[in-house]
Amino acid sequence: MDSKLRQWQLDIERIWQAPAPDWREAARLADVMARTSPEVLLRHAAAQALPILRHAAAETGDPEITEAARRRLGIIREVLHTLTAPRFGRRDIPVKTLTPGERYRQLLGLPLDRRLTATEIHRAYKRVAKTAHPDAGGSAHEFQALSAAREALMKER
Q1: Domains in the chain and their CATH numbers?
Q2: Using CA atoms, how far apart are residues 18 and 76, in angstroms rounded to an integer?
């Protein structure tokens, strides 16, 4: 699939560098990416860019539409660059999948290697909840996950 991503990147670059971009070709390419890309980020970027690219293909004279289309094409271009850029220093070491208990411990910032007391779990929960609570700038989803982690670790004890 890397070859397909690189080909799409070359096609987008060609359209991007052109003095008068071919918006019809850009819309066709975004449509293909939105339907067939295995990368979720690329599918979303292409799907969001598709309406304005089609609009720019239909009305080539409006500068506001072409500017918006150019911005959306730039987003697709950045996503493709991120996906195809070499990652130096990364090795293909298999990542150990964590058990739910280990994920809960990580979420609360607790050690993975020893038995925990109820006081340790409660203190860790309070510490993390100060920033995760919606009233403190966190999200409701994050806070609910944190509460679920505390409950699961307390039951596990």
Answers
A1: 2-84 (no CATH), 100-156 (1.10.287)
A2: 16
Tokens standing for residue 27: 């819309």
Q: Which two tokens stand for residue 11?
A: 């096609």
Identify which of 68, 57, 3, 6 has the alpha carbon closest to the alpha carbon of residue 31: 57
pTM over 0.90: no
Tell me the C-alpha distance between 129 and 28, whole Å.
47
Question: Any idea what the Cα angle at residue 150 is, between residues 149 and 152, rounded to 5°?
Answer: 65
Whole-angstrom Cα distance, residue 136 to residue 90?
35
Tokens of 41: 């980020």
Q: Which two tokens stand for residue 58?
A: 């239909």
User: Looking up tokens 């150990």, which residue turns up?
Assistant: 96
Measured distance CA(111)–CA(106) in Å, rounded = 7
Tokens 């203190």 identify what position?
Answer: 123
The closest alpha carbon to 72, from 56, 83, 84, 92, belongs to: 56
- Which tokens in the block code for residue 103? 């994920």
How far is C-alpha 45 from the chain's CA centre? 10
pLDDT in tens, 7-66: 999 999 999 998 888 999 999 999 999 999 888 899 999 999 999 999 999 977 788 999
